[in-house]
Amino acid sequence: MPTTVTVKKSCCKDKPRCKKCPVVLKRLADAGLAERRDKRTYVVSDAVRKKDLKAARSPQLRAAR
Predict the structure, then answer these.
(1) 26-41 per-position pLDDT tens digit
(2) Residue whose C-alpha is closest to residue 55's, from 20, 17, 22, 21
(3) C-alpha distances in angstroms, 49 versus 5, 13, 38, 52?
(4) Domain containing 56: what range?
C-alpha cells in the first residue's frame, strides 16, 4: 500500500536531507517513485528501495540518474 507523506514547510538543508524534506520528495517524484497530490502531500510508491531514498537524500544529484 502506498504511503502518504506530508512534507515540511521549508528545507533545513542538512546533509543528508531528512525524509520529509520537500527537495527529497520532489526528487522522488521526478524519478517516478512518488506522486504529488497537492502542494505539500506526496504519495510514495512501494517500489522505492533504500538505495533510491538514499540517492534522493544525498547532497549530490545522483537522484536524477
Answers:
(1) 999 999 999 999 999 9
(2) 17
(3) 16, 23, 24, 5
(4) 3-64
